[in-house]
Amino acid sequence: KILSGVYQKDAGEILLDGRPVEIQNPRHAQELGISTIYQELNLVRPLDIAKNVFLGREPMRSKALQWIDYLKMYRETQRILDELGVKLNARTLVRNLGVAQQQMVELAKALSFESRIMIMDEPTAALTEQEIKELFDVIRALQQRGVGIIYISHRLQEVAQVGDRVTVLRDGC
């Protein structure tokens, strides 16, 4: 939560590209290219995928008239979904998606911020074995693109499958 800007650090140092940074808040973390996908998904179920991906930062056709460029929003969301290998339509309502598909929407949202670091908190908690395999395929593709993944899990066998390095924390140590 410190890396994602929810809490302020009280000691230590955070280096990004070899330079110290002070992460002020979640928006600042996103501006730095850090996205977090929490175990509790943060989507608006009555909205479609594209509106969830760009919620609060919709592309505008005319800033003066406050016209949203829906064509650009749907096209960009579909591009990200296709890039992830997710077979979903950007116009699909989130309430019609399963948990694994909703998680992919969260990944698409993180990628729309051009995230360089993704923190994934217990991403497989509610997934089937097949859905876990598909998630791991997406994680490997992101790693190939140079996206850093911080994968938080109690399931150590999963960590061994996706991790290059492992840090074990127990009771804060």
Care to describe what's here?
By secondary structure, the chain is α/β, with parallel strands linked by helices. The protein has helices at residues 26-31, 49-53, 70-84, 99-112, 129-144, 156-162, and strands at 14-16, 19-21, 34-37, 60-62, 67-68, 117-121, 148-152. Strands 3-6-7 form a 3-stranded parallel sheet. Helix 5 links the parallel strand 6 (117-121) and strand 7. The longest helix is centred in the last third of the chain and has 16 residues, at 129-144. The chain is globular and about 50 Å long.
Spell out the key features of this protein.
173 residues, alpha/beta, 3-stranded parallel sheet, two-stranded antiparallel ribbon, 6 helices, 36% helix, globular
Q: What's the short story on this structure?
A:
By secondary structure, the chain is α/β, with parallel strands linked by helices.
Q: H/E order of the elements?
A: EEHEHEEHHEHEH
User: Proportion of β residues?
Assistant: 5-15%
Q: Compute the CA-based radius of gyration.
A: 17 Å
Could you name the ranges where pLDDT drops below 50 across 5 or more consecutive residues?
none
Helix content: 25-40%
Order of strands across the main sheet: 3-6-7
State the major sheet: 3 strands, parallel
User: How far is it from the N-terminal to the C-terminal residue, by CA?
Assistant: 16 Å
| E-strand count | 7
Mean pLDDT across all residues, rounded? Answer: 90
Structural class comes to: alpha/beta
| Shape annotation | globular
- The DSSP helix count reads 6
